[in-house]
């Protein structure tokens, strides 16, 4: 017997097994907060969304784009839209209007849903249907009076989501994740993190990030209570861990640095000690920070490595029984590596040092980009664009990023895109953008700038110039002035030479 692995399975099970349990506690201060919903209420709203898509003539295979902070409405879209045979396109809410518009147009979205706090900023971004999440979307999209037509031909190889990711060209590419990709990632992630129905997940990670790394699906299928955090704040994370009994969270290194900072002023015992486990990805925090998370907070540190193209799980690094006798420093050093392949993932490093993977979580293609797809998936292996080393124990360490992508605060930044913007400044003759290490952000977007004809430039002017042209998180946080940029004989920037002085000792580009 072969039953298609589709996203329907997660909410269907939650409604049947955990119908009266609290499913979501929405952000209380959010515009049009939904408050608390049970899994039964969540399933009813999901069906109303699906009926509304039918009423708006968004056909099966049609794209629904959403730009939103973390919210219950975003979570229900992740569950409802793909399960109706449509494709959800979650978009980074930090992008500038022009960048959002490109993704909406490139994906061919039939419907665009916008967070009320972003409505004015994105006023000029349009689609055949455009609704503001909240009262407007509830009135126009949700149809509680009709049962939605069932998905005509459920197919695990159909696209569930389009997740746009930065690359070397600067133009984002839509990674086509199938229902099978999403399903396998969710189940495998839950297994490795030992998720159970006694857990409480707080959505600290923005859910547009590769569908919240798949945790909305994992948690729903297991009846896990899900707490929405709209905006990251270290002290607020501690308060909600305390109030809601949170036991698991995912996020970038910068989040956990904020929590460590807030913990210094926290009165009394740190909430969640010996209960909370966190999952970290992106540029790994220094081993000293990992040790502080486990010692000062008493929270278990876990690390994964993956990409939007891989749904994202590829490797896992969890505390092992063998680590129990190690010093905190040695334990943290072991946990700072990317990890070992997740169940069902094959991984190797080729002769040029690039990490190649094969997995059920790897995307089918880049949306409408055959040439880029063929370059990324070759002979059954996906080229991650990352350089790495496999240890004798099978653990992967990422050593370089061939795609010139910087991971700052958990966000991917294309160095080439930043360079293109900065070269538009009339006083800049040349520029190279690299990652430099930072305890708070993981990696800093750092611009190495050559002034034109000896013109006087200051860091703040360059940073502000960049912020007028692109999302603020992409703008350089550090500017270094040099007389020249080193190039190869074939005219390629030798960024490894520029990076080398910053990445010394056990600090490596991840």
The biggest beta sheet reads: 9 strands, mixed
> Helix amount, in percent?
25-40%
Structural class: alpha/beta
| CATH fold annotation of the largest domain | Rossmann fold
Distance between the termini: 42 Å
Strand order of the largest sheet: 2-1-10-9-11-12-13-14-15
Helix count equals 15
| C-alpha-based Rg, rounded | 22 Å
Domain AMP-binding enzyme C-terminal: 417-492
Family: Belongs to the ATP-dependent AMP-binding enzyme family.
Keywords: Fatty acid metabolism, Ligase, Lipid metabolism
Domain AMP-dependent synthetase/ligase: 12-367
Structural features, described:
This is AMP-binding protein. Pfam families: AMP-binding (PF00501), AMP-binding_C (PF13193). InterPro entries: AMP-bd_C, AMP-bd_C_sf, AMP-binding_CS, AMP-dep_synth/lig_dom, ANL_N_sf. It comes from Candidatus Mycolicibacterium alkanivorans. Keywords: Fatty acid metabolism, Ligase, Lipid metabolism. By secondary structure, the protein is α/β, with parallel strands linked by helices. The chain folds into three domains: 1-180, ANL, N-terminal domain (Rossmann fold), CATH 3.40.50.12780; 232-403, Rossmann fold (3-Layer(aba) Sandwich); 405-499, ANL, C-terminal domain (GMP Synthetase, Chain A, domain 3, 2-Layer Sandwich). 29% of the residues lie in helices and 25% in strands. It has 15 helices and 25 strands. Strands 2-1-10-9-11-12-13-14-15 form a nine-stranded mixed sheet, sandwiched between helices. Strands 16, 17, 18, 19 and 20 form a five-stranded antiparallel sheet that branches. A four-stranded parallel sheet has the order 4-3-5-6, with helices on both faces. Helix 14 links the parallel strand 24 (442-451) and strand 25 (478-481). Helix 2 packs across helix 3 (72-83), helix 6 (179-192) packs across helix 7 (215-221) and helix 10 (287-297) crosses helix 11 (328-335). The longest helix has 17 residues, at 39-55. The mean pLDDT is 93.
């Amino acid at each position: 017997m072969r039953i298609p692995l589709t996203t329907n399975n997660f909410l269907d099970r939650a409604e049947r097994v955990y119908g009266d349990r609290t499913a979501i506690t929405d952000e209380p201060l959010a515009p049009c907060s939904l408050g608390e919903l049970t899994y039964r209420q969540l399933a009813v709203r999901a069906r109303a969304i699906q009926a509304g898509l039918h009423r708006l003539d968004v056909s099966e295979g049609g794209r629904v784009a959403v730009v939103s902070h973390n919210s219950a409405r975003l979570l229900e879209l992740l569950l409802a839209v793909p399960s109706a045979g449509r494709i959800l396109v979650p978009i980074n809410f930090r992008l500038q209007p022009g960048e959002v518009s490109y993704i909406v147009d490139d994906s061919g979205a039939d419907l665009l849903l916008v967070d009320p706090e972003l409505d004015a900023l994105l006023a000029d971004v349009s689609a055949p249907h455009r609704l503001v999440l909240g009262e407007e979307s509830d009135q126009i999209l949700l149809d509680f009076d009709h049962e939605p037509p069932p998905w005509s031909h459920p197919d695990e190889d159909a696209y569930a989501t389009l997740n746009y990711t930065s690359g070397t060209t600067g133009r984002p590419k839509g990674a086509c994740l199938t229902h099978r990709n999403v399903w396998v990632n969710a189940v495998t992630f839950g297994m490795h993190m030992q998720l159970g129905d006694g857990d409480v997940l707080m959505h600290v990670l923005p859910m547009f990030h590769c569908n919240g790394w798949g945790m909305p699906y994992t948690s729903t299928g297991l009846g896990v209570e899900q707490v929405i955090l709209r905006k990251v704040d270290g002290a607020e994370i501690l308060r909600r861990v305390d109030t809601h009994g949170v036991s698991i969270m995912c996020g970038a290194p910068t989040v956990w640095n904020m929590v460590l900072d807030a913990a210094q002023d926290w009165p009394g015992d740190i909430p969640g000690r010996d209960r909370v486990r966190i999952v970290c990805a992106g540029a790994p925090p220094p081993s000293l920070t990992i040790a502080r998370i486990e010692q000062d907070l008493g929270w278990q540190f876990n690390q994964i490595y993956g990409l939007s193209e891989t749904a994202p799980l590829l490797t896992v690094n969890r505390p092992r029984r063998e680590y129990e006798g190690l010093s905190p420093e040695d334990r943290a050093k072991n946990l700072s590596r990317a990890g070992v392949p997740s169940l069902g993932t094959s991984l190797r490093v080729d002769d040029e040092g690039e990490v190649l993977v094969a997995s059920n979580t790897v995307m089918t293609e880049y949306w409408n980009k055959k040439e880029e797809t063929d370059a990324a998936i070759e002979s059954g292996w996906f080229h991650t664009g990352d350089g790495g080393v496999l240890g004798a124990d099978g653990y992967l360490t990422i050593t370089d990023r061939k795609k010139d992508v910087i991971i700052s605060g958990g966000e991917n930044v294309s160095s080439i895109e930043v360079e293109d913007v900065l070269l538009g400044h009339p006083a800049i003759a040349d520029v190279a953008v690299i990652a430099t290490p930072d305890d708070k952000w993981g990696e800093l977007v750092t611009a190495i700038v050559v002034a034109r004809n000896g013109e006087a430039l200051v860091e703040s002017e360059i940073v502000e110039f960049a912020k007028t042209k692109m999302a603020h998180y992409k703008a350089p946080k550090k500017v270094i002035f040099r007389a020249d940029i080193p190039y190869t004989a074939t005219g390629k920037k030798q960024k490894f030479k520029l990076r080398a002085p910053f990445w010394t000792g056990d600090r490596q580009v991840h």
